[in-house]
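Need residues for this backbone.
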């Protein structure tokens, strides 16, 4: 995702793809941060002609989406004019429907949180009550000055059908099966709505954190936090402790595999799941079912799980949490994470959710210790805190089409 420092996608010099080319330039300018890029750099990175870039940037400027960022130092000729994204030009909302809580945020085009709201939610009360709660929450975080939202991302417990926008057979909540949540919310809000699993939104939040590192927080609302309760953590292995901001940023050299980073986001809350960021985007699988991480069986004939199986990692881990043995919960989580690392060879394992937030050092150290013990390669992945929460990731998914990426 290091588009601000070299990675590029090809533009197409066809009038029919004007929208794609606009999104492509916006994406590059987002990755560049406030420093911006010159028109010649945009042309070089996209393969578009200088004339096409000039026309597109003129349109984007007229729409208020980009502005001048100053002039680059002269190399002998006329100093180049630099262009930057205008983060406050548009906003998006993100909502996390958890089993007992609803959190909503509004973010700018750089992904920075500018408003947030949270409150209790009884997921078992059924879809209609949840829809009303989402509508109220989006209205609470909406811009009082009337700046329109480009869309709303909604993250919910899986399984669900991302493409159809419908809920699946959520474990323990049969009334949700088949409910067309996306369509109902679009009708109520009058906005594009994207529905995805909470764990996929968590993976998108991690990717967004890499991009947000290009945008300083000085001009963001100092009274508004990301609401996740955890920051980006230090890696486990050669490093000790849990910090904020370590190992996070759009630096491709930080990733073991080079190029686009890959990661597994592991969420521990009322349930356990994983989101996969592979190949530059969220990997959902053929049926939107990828990431059912908590229901891998790690103890044959173990205790029954609410999914119907026995010995699932979720039931074992959450039982350890319930009896206060967080070190054992972290060890169990680490075993499951090590299985995923062995299968996918990812650069990072990022941890989030309220259980992790309550004892971040325990979980980062515990998961890291298991990965170190089971590593077949000395260049094992980084284990860190996620750096952003699920509602932020849902908003990131809602922004994705504006930057030419699938939500």
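Answer:
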């Amino acid at each position: 995702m290091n588009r601000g420092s070299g990675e590029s996608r090809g533009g197409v010099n066809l009038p029919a793809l004007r929208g794609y080319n606009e999104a492509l330039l916006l994406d590059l300018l987002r990755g560049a941060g406030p420093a911006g890029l010159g028109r010649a750099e945009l042309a070089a990175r996209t393969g578009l002609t200088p004339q096409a870039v000039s026309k597109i940037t003129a349109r984007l400027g007229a729409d208020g989406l980009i502005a001048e960022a100053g002039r680059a130092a002269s190399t002998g000729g006329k100093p180049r004019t630099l262009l930057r994204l205008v983060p406050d030009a548009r906003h998006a909302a993100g909502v996390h429907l958890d089993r007992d809580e609803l959190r909503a945020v509004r973010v700018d085009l750089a992904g920075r949180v500018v408003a947030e709201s949270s409150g209790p939610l009884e997921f078992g009360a059924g879809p209609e009550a949840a829809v009303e709660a989402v509508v109220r929450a989006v209205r609470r975080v909406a811009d009082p000055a009337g700046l329109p939202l480009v869309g709303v991302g909604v993250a919910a417990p899986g399984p669900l059908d991302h493409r159809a926008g419908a809920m699946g057979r959520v474990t323990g909540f049969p009334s949700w099966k088949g409910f067309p949540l996306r369509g109902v919310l679009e009708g109520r809000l009058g906005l594009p709505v994207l529905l995805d699993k909470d764990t996929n939104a968590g993976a998108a939040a991690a990717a967004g954190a890499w991009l947000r590192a290009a945008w300083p927080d000085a001009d963001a609302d100092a009274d508004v936090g990301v609401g996740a309760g955890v920051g980006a953590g230090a890696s486990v292995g050669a490093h000790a402790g849990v910090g904020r901001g370590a190992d996070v940023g759009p630096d491709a050299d930080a990733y073991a595999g080079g190029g686009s980073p890959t990661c597994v986001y592991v969420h521990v809350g009322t349930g356990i799941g994983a989101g996969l960021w592979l190949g530059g985007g969220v990997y959902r699988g053929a049926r939107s079912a990828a990431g059912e991480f908590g229901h891998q069986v790690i103890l044959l004939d173990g205790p029954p799980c609410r999914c119907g199986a026995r010995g699932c990692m979720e039931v074992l881990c959450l039982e350890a949490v319930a009896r206060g043995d967080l070190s054992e919960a972290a060890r169990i989580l680490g075993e499951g994470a090590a299985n995923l690392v062995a299968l996918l060879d990812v650069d990072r394992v990022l941890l989030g959710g309220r259980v992790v937030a309550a004892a971040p050092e325990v979980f980062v150290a515990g998961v890291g210790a298991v990965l170190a013990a089971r590593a077949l390669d000395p260049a094992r992945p980084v284990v860190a805190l996620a750096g952003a929460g699920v509602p932020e990731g849902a908003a990131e998914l809602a922004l994705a089409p504006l930057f030419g990426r699938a939500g």
